[in-house]
Amino acid sequence: MVDFARVQKELADCNRDMEISGISIMLHGNGNDLSHLSGTITGPVATPYEGGTFQIDIRLPEGYPFEPPKMQFVTKVWHPNISSQNGAICLDILKDQWSPALTLKTALLSLQALLSAPAPDDPQDAVVAQQYLRDYQTFDGTARYWTETFAKRSSIGTEEKVQKLVEMGFPEALVRKTLEIVGGDENMALEKLCSG
Question: Could you list the active site residues?
């Protein structure tokens, strides 16, 4: 059984200093299920991910905190230890090195550190790892392009997206919150709004 009191405390602790850490966690979608969360990390400075905001899907197994959380990037990212196809993550603390002493915040901080220090010898995405090892310049350019394309929220485009979705009959506050949850992806926002 998930320790929900601990999860609530972790959420409060994590969100208390999000301006400093660049990390936040909230309930997934508009739900109230404490076992399905959405995390956000900012791309580390002096990396190809700088300036990006990356969404992480977090699912807590029944055995949490004795079992690791299941985390997956929702935002597309070009990185040797993250699948460019489905966002799966290769990180020891999300597998056999997990400890109940760790928290969701420490796991997200570890993901942020992974963005700074890829481990191409233990890849999740072999194609990206090979590029990282053999042609770093192309890797760096591709990672920066993906960050620009998928992880940066263009404030200019946001207002147009809000306007379009509001014209379809959805309440503005809900539209803004939904766009924020899906990282500004208009199509995903529409899908969520229609299914919600």
Answer: 90
